[in-house]
Amino acid sequence: MKYPIMKTNSKFISSVFLTFSLLDIQMAYSSQKDARILPNNILLIIVDDLRIQANFSGQSEMKTPNLDMLAKSGVAFSRAYCNVPVSGASRASLLSGLRPTQNRFIDYDTKKDTDAPNVPSLPKWFKNNGYKTVSIGKVYHHIDDDVNAWGKPPVDPCLDGKIGMGWQAYLTGESHDIILQEQKRTRNLNLIKGPAFEAAEVEDTAYPDGVSALLAIEELKKMNQSETPFFLAVGFRKPHLPFNAPRKYWDLYNANDIKLADNPYKPMHAPDKSMHSSGELRSMYTGVPAQRLFPDEYAKTLIHGYYASVSYVDAQIGKVLSELKSLGLDRNTTVIFIGDNGFHLGEHTLWCKHCNFQRVLNTPMIIKAPGYTTGKTTKSIVEFVDIYPTICDLAKIRKPSHLEGKTMLPILRNPKAKIKRYAYPRYEKGESVVSEHFSYTEWYDYKTSDSEVNMLYDLDNDPHENVNISGEPTMYKIVKKQKRKLIKLRAKLAKHHP
After folding, report:
1. How many other CB atoms are there within 10 angstroms of residue 253's CB atom?
2. Could you tell me which residue, 420 or 15, shows the higher pLDDT?
3. In the chain, count of helices (H) and strands (E)?
4. CATH fold for the domain made of 39-420
5. Cα(265)–Cα(433) distance, rounded to whole angstroms?
6. Confidence class of residue 498 from pLDDT cuts 50, 70 and 90?
7. Among the four residues 60, 120, 121, 145, which has the most C-beta atoms within 10 Å?
């Protein structure tokens, strides 16, 4: 069979060739554009007073489905350590990339602008490198700290006076009555002192963290319309005291199933300096029992409130991450999730933070970075000072010279990799060095250059730190080795920060 011969139309061929050439150019440009923005966006989520106890940490007491999902799409760090276990100092340290010292980043009232005014913070560095930087909720402890780091003024729904009573955002009539009684008793109309927990029949947005989630979602929508890379920091206040959360999150837990701490006693041979009076809880809230060891019912209610607050925050984080995905931004946004410090719930008779035990120093951290390992947990030791250089590397921007941490990129590539053998947390005069197997702390007097007292815990055989073994003859070499590590660190910090 013969087929008809078709005449060649040169104009048609030229038109087709030109069309495909233009498509090739457009696709190439689009590919270059995607490659340019792929490593850029950063979403930093900071949660206040979150201890390691969620499912993604291998425990089952708290219900955190959204954090569990985030861990499955990133790398969870089981041995991450805050450098100082108190909110203001912890945040100023990690956002500046500098370690705390005897004179810097000491307590909750710390300001980065005061303690490290001459170094660019993490958000300021990204702003200087062309990023849109936005702060929502509690990122720094003080909303007026490091304000020039942000492209617009930071926003914190806890502080605008529109939600509940005080920054604590009390909502229920019962709480309001207690607060009014305290004001009358103290003759101080400005005092907002209420109960340590509250369960209101309200929607998520009735409390500040729900509003913070909505504000973050609005920002993501705006950022999706721009080609400018973004650095968005979102700070959630719960589960910080008071444990106020919508009733539905309390209802996730059966009160009868709440378990008390299994070591509600001072560690054997622990120095008195290692302990505290749980002053944050006792001095700032009403109805707290006077005795050091709380009655079981009250302790269980506090724990119940803490769990409810964690689940409430988990839901808000889930909303933000869901919007990130629905906008398609998840493919080119690194998500860093941390708790600013750990928290005691009756262990060693302690509540809150402010000490050098693992429950307070060891903090949850998850990093989800496009193109890196997913669904793994690493036991590699890292510190909060490592966050700044890591985010710079993930965004492929140059690191400033003042940083004192190390990049975690090797761990994100291979969760078995190690970037350091020791973490160095501290709280006031208590200086710690944590290794793979031991946690050592000594209280150091800088005036006399003497170590006053110390404690050592075998984390392999005593992970809950119930017996201080620093005085045992068999531990002499270990104590001496850990001491040398702290001496070396002090000398290094003194050289660079006299």
Report:
1. 18
2. 420
3. 14, 16
4. Alkaline Phosphatase, subunit A (3.40.720)
5. 23
6. low
7. 121
